[in-house]
Amino acid sequence: TAFFHGDLKEELYMEISPGFENEQLKGKVCKLLRSIYGLKQASRQWYLKFHQAILSNGFQMIEEDHCVYIKMSKNNFIVITLYVDDML
């Protein structure tokens, strides 16, 4: 469900999905307000949103791997790694 949280930069439309059709919607399209699975932009938009959120919470991105973030304090540290839409 992570990909549903990305914000779209473009104005995108899609046909009404099978099963949601009725006579009032026949021949009409939907304007997408959020990313959906299968959308080419979905993973990138989710990553950009995640990236901004994690930086605003004091994490730093590792330059050698843009999917690794670290937050250090006096005696502790936290490492977050991303793989597709999973965090470790």
TrEMBL record:
Residue intervals of the Reverse transcriptase Ty1/copia-type domain = 1-88
Alphabetized, the UniProt keywords read:
Nucleotidyltransferase, RNA-directed DNA polymerase, Transferase
Taxonomic superkingdom: Eukaryota
Identify the Pfam families for this entry: RVT_2 (PF07727)
> Which GO molecular function terms does the record list?
RNA-directed DNA polymerase activity
Q: Could you tell me what this protein is called? A: Reverse transcriptase
Name the species this protein comes from: Eleocharis palustris
